[in-house]
Amino acid sequence: FLITIQDVNAVFVIENPYVGKLETSILELVQHVVNHGTYHRGNITAMIRQLGHSSTMMDFVLYLHMVKKQGE
Fold this sequence. Notes:
Elements: E1 11-16, E2 20-25, H1 26-50, H2 60-71
Antiparallel strand pairs: 1-2
């Protein structure tokens, strides 16, 4: 999907249930989705810890290091 976009700064209108119509760019929307995923990962980590379990590392840099090491 993203590779087909010719102008990431193109503005379009979306309906937000809290504030109504908003003008936003595709770039801003993608940044929102990435950031919102971070929010949910934090919530899930907190719930896991509240249940007495330890959470796992979720750092992307750590993931890249582990994948590289597996390929060696």
